[in-house]
Amino acid sequence: MRCLSLLLLLCFFSLAARPALAQRVATNKIKVKKAGKKTVVTPVKATPSTKPVPTASLPVLTFERTPCFGTCPGYKMDVYADGHVAYDGTRAVPLMGKKELTMPASAVATLLSQAKEAHFEKFEKRYARGTTDLPSTIISIRQPDGSLKTVTVEEGAPENVQNLFAAFGTQLDQVAQLNGAEK
User: What does the pLDDT read at residue 53?
Assistant: First the structure.
């Protein structure tokens, strides 16, 4: 036990000897200043080593269909507020591979509005009944606080959830010219 404690102390002090590395590891630092016979200890907040990513550079929604053991389509679309779409077709779709697509920014706003009206933020995380070999449809929407709310549907979703997923599928399949890839 003493050896383990000693080893942990040595690791801590070796990290403290390298300020750049220690700053990335530690969330709070302590500033020590000697004033005559007294030692003054002042906590100092560490600054993050990486800058936060602006939310404008993140997708506002992601739409994904997962493949099954058969010929179910597999693709993912990251949709940005300006209408930029990063598409990746992986299986059983006419548009294979990574592609850059566009759609009107107003169409993106309409999709987000539909999700808000359907109370997407209140949907359950997953709708499934445990059947194997079913494809999933996954929608993730960036919330006002910057977090991502993800909902996965396999089967058994309520009608309002099914309707929203169908509307998203129809609109986004048209953007990628997949013409009903969910079938």
Answer: 52
The structural domain count of the chain equals 2
Task: List, in sequence order, every beta strand (DSSP E) within 9-120.
Answer: 28-35, 38-45, 61-65, 74-79, 84-91, 97-102
Of 119, 116, 121, 114, the C-alpha closest to 171 is 114
Q: Quote the tokens at residue 21.
A: 């590395």
C-alpha 130/C-alpha 151 separation (Å) is: 16
Give the structural domain span for 77: 55-175
DSSP one-letter string for 3-28: HHHHHHHHHHHHHHHSHHHHHHH-SE
Are residue 167 and residue 82 in the same domain, yes or no? yes
The reported pTM is 0.69
